[in-house]
Amino acid sequence: MPASQSQPQPHPQPDEQPTVTSSPDTGPYDALLLVSFGGPEKPDDVVPFLENVTRGRGIPRERLEEVGQHYYLFGGRSPINDQNREFLAALREDLKGAGIDLPVYWGNRNWDPYLADTLRRMAADGISRAACFMTSAYSSYSSCRQYRENLADAVAEVPEAPRLDKLRHYFNHPGFVEAVVDATLAALAELPDVAREGAHLAFVTHSIPTAMNDTSGPDGGAYLAQHRSVAQEVVDRVREETGRRHPHEVVFCSRSGAPHVPWLEPDVNDHLRALRDSGVPGVVMVPVGFVSDHMEVIYDLDTEAMATAEEIGLPARRAATAGVDPRFVAAVRDLLLERAAVERGEERRRAAVGSMDALWDRCPVGCCPNPRGDRPALCGSGS
User: Fold this and answer.
1) Cβ-based neighbour number of residue 66 at 10 Å
2) Are the C-beta atoms of 238 and 201 separated by less than 8 Å?
3) Partners of 363 in the β-ladder
4) What is the CB neighbour count within 10 angstroms for residue 101?
5) Confidence bin at 61 (pLDDT 50/70/90)
6) Are 35 and 161 in the same domain?
7) What are the CA-CA distances from residue 340 to residues 7, 151, 166, 347 (Å)?
8) Residue ranges for the binding site?
C-alpha cells in the first residue's frame, strides 16, 4: 500500500457507546482547606503578628521587636503568604487537570486570612466537610498538635463550621521526597568542582525543645526520627544518581525561648564551623523541615548561615524547598483521594518511601501533648 494511503477505519456500530471517564471521587469532602502559619504583609504587621505567635508565653515586647528585625530586612513582609497564594493557584490547577471540581480555601493560624474567618466563608458557601492540608509535614506539638488546637479554636468561634479532617503527615510521601532529592542534586551541581565530591549534606529543620521532641508522636522522639528517615532516603537516592554517598546530618535553626531550656542541636551555624574545622570541602544545606522559602529559610539560611559559610571560607549552597514543584502539589491530591477513600471504607494504596510506613489518619490519643497543659484539639482519635 502506498505510504500516502491509509487503511479504512471501521465505522462504530449502532450499539457502541463512547467511553466515559469518571472524575476521581473526593466524597465525603466538598472542599479542601489549606492551613498555614501566616505572616506579616507590611512593617506595621510585624510585632502584632509576633504577639499572635507567642501569645501566652510571656515574651517581652522588646524581644519581639528584636526578632522583628529579621522581617524588616525584607521590607517587613514575610514571603509565606505569597507562597501560599502560589501554592493555592498550583493546587487548583492540578485538581482541575485531574478532573476534580472542588473548592480550595486557605486559612492561617496567626495572620489574615485567619482560620475562623475562612470557616465562616466556607459555612456561608454551604461547605459541610473539608479535608485539611497543613503546611507542616512532621510530628510534634508545634508542628502538628498546635495546628489541631487552632482548628478547634476556630470551630468553637464558628458554630456552623464544616466538619474538618486533617490529611496525614507527608514527610515521606514520594511527591515531597522526590522534590527534595532533585533540589539537592541541583545544589550539589552548583558547588565548585573541588568541593562537590566530598560535600556534606546538612538537612536543616526548625529546632524545638528537646522535651517536645521526646513527647512527639505516640511513642516519643517522632520529630527527629522522621527527619532522619527522610534525610537517609534523600542521601540514598542522591547516591543512586551520582555514585557517591555524601556524609550528612540533621541540624537545626531558629532556636528561641529561655537559654536554660535545652533545644535540639547542633545549630546550623555551629555545624558549618565544625565542618570547616574537620576539613570538609563544601556543604549543601537542605531545608527538609520546610515546604517553602519562608522566613526561617531566607533569613536563617540564605542570610545568616550563608554569611557564616562565607566568613569561614566554606563553599556552600542552599537547596530549594518543595514549593510549587508539580510532584509536591500532586501529592496533596493523592493524600486527599486517599483519605476520601478511607472515609468511604475503601482500600487505597498509601504512598510512602524510606524507612517509615505511611502514618495514621487520626492522631493517636496523647500524641504530641501541649507542654503547657491539655487543650481541645480536632482531628485526633479521641476528638
Assistant:
1) 11
2) yes
3) 380
4) 8
5) confident
6) yes
7) 46, 20, 11, 10
8) 78, 147, 206, 296
How do residues 313-327 score in pLDDT, each as one tens digit? 999 999 999 999 999
| Angle (CA) 301 283 327, round 5° | 70
Q: Which parts are annotated binding residues for Fe(2+)?
A: 206, 296
The total number of residues shown for the chain amounts to 383
DSSP 3-state assignment of 82? helix
- Full domain range(s) for residue 93: 31-170+324-343
Q: How many CB atoms lie within 10 A of CB 341?
A: 18
DSSP at 165: E
Question: Which residues are within 8 A (CB) of 174 and not within 5 positions of it... i.e. 6 or more apart?
Answer: 327, 331, 351, 352, 353
Cα 34 from Cα 14, distance rounded (Å): 48
Binding-site residues for Fe-coproporphyrin III sit at 78, 147
Distance of CA 183 to the CA centre of its chain: 15
| Cβ-contact 99, 21 below 8 angstroms | yes
Q: What is the mean pLDDT of residues 181-200?
A: 98
- Which of 262, 283, 318 lies at the terminal end of a domain, its last residue? 318
User: Per-residue pLDDT tens for 207-239?
Assistant: 999 999 999 999 999 999 999 999 999 999 999
Amino acid in the structure at residue 250: V
Total domain count, the chain? 2
Which residue reads 531558629 in cell numbers?
254
Q: Contact, 368 vs 145, CB < 8 A?
A: yes
